[in-house]
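Translate structure to sequence.
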């Protein structure tokens, strides 16, 4: 992905290449991140044309400063993460129509402020905490199924993936019979953004799920229940949401919510498997899973970057980013910056500044579903280590082919099936 120039000691200037889509970088991006932080902390990629920011202070500035770095990036003519893949004209037209509707993830104040206030009443700490018993119940049921299954286990397929799908479906009041549709739609929406992913499947599912939520929102306006969609349609006056806004928010919750939790659980368990002392600590004290989740968000978070657009000429690390330029703040690089984190490549549960991680963004765009993702991941890991204490890898995992989504497609495991098959 493009080139950058770096000034070295003695004034020598050299040109390097850095490809975010290189399989070696996707497998382990941190050597490349370290090189970027040291040699070109604000890196100009020529193909595609965007600026990559990697140091903690600069990344935090980009994700927090909504006045100078816009989230309303609009439709991009070429995919910055899949060079050479240009959307067909019908797709670009559809994208332009979709971005005309306010969407939480790609809007700026004041629209973002208004929209977040409207949907925020569905994500209060009290409402999310109230879901914890049900999250733990579903986690236990999924582990029950793993213990009694007659096929090899996979932590992604059997637990990390179905858990958030089931929870979000219940939150939205969707019948359990539609969970398979929900999972397929969610996977298609995410896979369409990956290298080699099907854009046709992505937009077929986008259309299917849009119609599903559109019809559901209309039904809830006539006959409300106690689900999240009913809460969203109940707003009046300044708190009223349009049906397209509700549809877009539900799609965002389904796709982003599922992928975030799935990848967080998978990355955390991979870290546990690589560290026998940590595995033993979790066996002895399963509630330590909360600290494991927090450190995983820093050490190997589910999202490696976000896309922003510079509103005006901006200087970061003595480099000027021109107005209108696309900017990619590398969250994963910032979360391993030795300028902010002592021993950044060590997985530690005792970091006093762990709350500084940027895995959920910062400022006005701080992830509205962060508490839900943490509760889901913590419950899943606790259940795994309590019920499957000898769980271990059973073959090589398969990583997601993406420079910005950090997670696993598969994580095969083995364990003694004589463990408790029914949760206490």
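Result:
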């Amino acid at each position: 992905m493009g080139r950058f120039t770096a000034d070295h000691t003695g004034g020598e200037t050299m040109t390097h290449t850095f490809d975010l889509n290189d399989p070696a970088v996707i497998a382990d991006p941190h050597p490349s991140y370290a090189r970027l932080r040291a040699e070109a902390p604000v890196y100009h990629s020529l193909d595609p044309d965007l600026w990559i920011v990697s140091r903690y202070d600069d990344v935090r500035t980009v994700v927090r400063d909504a006045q100078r770095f816009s989230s309303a990036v609009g439709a991009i003519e070429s995919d910055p993460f899949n060079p050479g893949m240009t959307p067909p004209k019908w797709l670009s037209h559809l994208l332009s129509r979709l971005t005309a509707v306010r969407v939480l993830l790609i809007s700026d104040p004041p629209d973002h402020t208004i929209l977040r206030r409207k949907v925020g009443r569905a994500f209060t700490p009290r409402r999310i905490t109230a879901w914890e018993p049900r999250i733990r119940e579903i986690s236990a049921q999924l582990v029950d199924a793993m213990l009694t299954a007659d096929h090899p286990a996979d932590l992604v397929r059997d637990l990390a993936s179905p858990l958030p799908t089931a929870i979000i479906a219940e939150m939205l009041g969707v019948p359990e019979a539609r969970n398979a549709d929900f999972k397929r739609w969610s996977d298609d929406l995410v896979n369409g953004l990956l290298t080699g992913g099907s854009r046709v499947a992505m937009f077929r599912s986008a259309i299917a799920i849009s119609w599903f939520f559109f019809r559901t929102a209309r039904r809830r306006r006539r006959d409300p229940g106690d689900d999240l969609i009913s809460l969203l349609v109940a707003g009046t006056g300044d708190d009223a949401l349009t049906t397209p806004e509700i549809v877009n928010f539900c799609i965002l919750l389904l796709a982003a919510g599922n992928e975030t939790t799935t990848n967080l659980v998978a990355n955390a368990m991979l870290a546990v498997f690589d560290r026998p002392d940590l595995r033993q600590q979790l066996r002895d004290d399963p509630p330590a899973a909360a600290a494991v989740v927090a450190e995983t968000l820093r050490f190997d978070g589910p999202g490696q970057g976000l896309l922003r657009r510079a509103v005006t000429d901006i200087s970061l690390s003595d480099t000027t980013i021109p107005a209108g330029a696309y900017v990619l703040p590398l969250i994963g690089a910032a979360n391993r910056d030795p300028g902010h984190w002592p021993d950044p490549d060590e997985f530690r549960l005792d970091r006093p500044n762990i709350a500084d991680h940027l895995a959920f963004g910062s400022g006005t765009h701080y992830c509205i579903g962060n508490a839900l993702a943490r509760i889901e991941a913590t419950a899943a890991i606790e259940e795994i280590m309590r019920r499957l204490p000898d769980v271990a890898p059973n073959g090589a995992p398969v990583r997601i082919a993406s420079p910005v989504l950090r997670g696993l497609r598969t994580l095969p495991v083995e364990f003694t099936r004589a463990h408790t098959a029914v949760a206490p």
